[in-house]
Write a structure and sequence with these properties.
It is a single chain. The chain is mainly β and 301 residues long. It has a single domain, classed as Sandwich (Jelly Rolls), CATH 2.60.120. Strands 3, 5, 6, 7, 8, 10, 15, 16, 17 and 19 form a 10-stranded mixed β-sheet that branches. Strands 1, 2, 4, 9, 11, 12, 13, 14 and 18 form a 9-stranded mixed β-sheet that branches.
Length: 301
């Protein structure tokens, strides 16, 4: 399955596979959100301290947002605090998710005792892609259809670094979609992107963004999505910043693959982009190795 990507990368990546594809990518004026909304840290969140409660988070909605579904039944509480990955999770091996510059290997996934860490490094030998990093997923272990998903993570900073917390479907699914809970192009550790991508029966993407007041590289934050029938809502630290609906998609002539059966698996990764990919590649200021940490992933239905 191709790597999650916004408009420019979607066009470049798919062209190699589907030369005649016509890809429509809507801009932020098709969403309920105010994409330039700046999010301030709330309460004790945004610190490096572990959470003391796994209670369902409260999501604050700005004026004009549609009501969200109530998901209060705990389904999964993945704490990355042991010496091994929790059940359902495995490290990605010999795979790139369609990235042009990064290959993911288990050697770059490490349990710290309080988190799982993904470390991106420059490769000194060929053949292979120029960078190696870590990724984990629940492919083959756990699949989800709707719910509130909360990734608690801390990202590094550096031009060319590209973090991803996302949901995907197995290859060759049709309908097929992808939900990006949070991506960051880490030359800027304040801007967060949330996206939807349809891979089949047709190709389209919708990417929204917000700017955090806090520097995401300085502490852990909760990156959240409320995925309900007919609508997806993105939030950070309990503050919603974007919504996109099935009605909006259908009005734009787009299929809505996100409510079809089959389920989605979860992925967390840190990539290093190529010069031609979204956000561009590393430069002389980029420090490698660079490490991203995920402390927990929680799901309610």
């Amino acid at each position: 399955m191709m790597k999650r990507s916004p408009a420019a990368t979607l066009v470049a990546s798919v062209a190699a596979l589907v030369a005649a594809a016509s890809i429509a990518v809507a801009t932020s004026d098709r969403t309920v959100a105010r994409p330039d909304r700046t999010l301030a840290a709330s309460g004790s969140r945004g610190t490096g301290r572990p959470r003391v409660s796994s209670a369902v988070p409260t999501i604050a909605l700005p004026p004009g947002f549609a009501a969200i579904a109530t998901y209060s039944k705990p389904v999964k509480d993945y704490e990355f605090s042991g010496s091994e990955l929790p059940a359902d999770w495995s490290a990605t091996r010999d795979y790139s998710f369609g990235d042009q510059a990064t290959e993911f290997q288990p050697s770059q996934v490490r349990l710290t005792g309080t988190s799982v860490a993904f470390t991106a490094i420059s490769r000194s030998t060929w053949p292979g892609l120029p960078y190696t990093s870590g990724a984990i997923s629940t492919a083959g272990g756990f699949f989800l259809q709707h719910g509130l998903i909360d990734f608690r993570a801390k990202v590094p900073v550096g031009q060319g670094l590209w973090s991803g917390l996302w949901l995907d479907q197995v290859n060759d699914s049709n309908p097929s979609g992808e939900i990006d809970v949070a991506e960051m192009l880490l030359g800027d550790s304040h801007t967060v992107y949330g996206s939807l991508h349809s891979w089949a029966p047709s190709l389209w993407g919708e990417t929204q963004q917000t700017r955090m007041a806090a520097d995401a590289s300085q502490g852990f934050h909760d990156y959240q999505v409320i995925w309900q029938p007919g609508m997806v809502t993105w939030a950070i630290d309990g503050a919603a910043y974007a919504q996109y609906t099935k009605a909006q998609a259908l009005a734009a002539g787009r299929p809505w693959p996100f409510d079809d059966t089959g389920g989605y698996f979860l992925i967390a990764d840190l990539a290093v982009a190529a010069a031609t990919e979204w956000g561009g590649g590393p430069n002389s200021s980029t420090v490698l190795p660079a490490t991203m940490q995920v402390q927990s992933i929680r799901i309610w239905r």
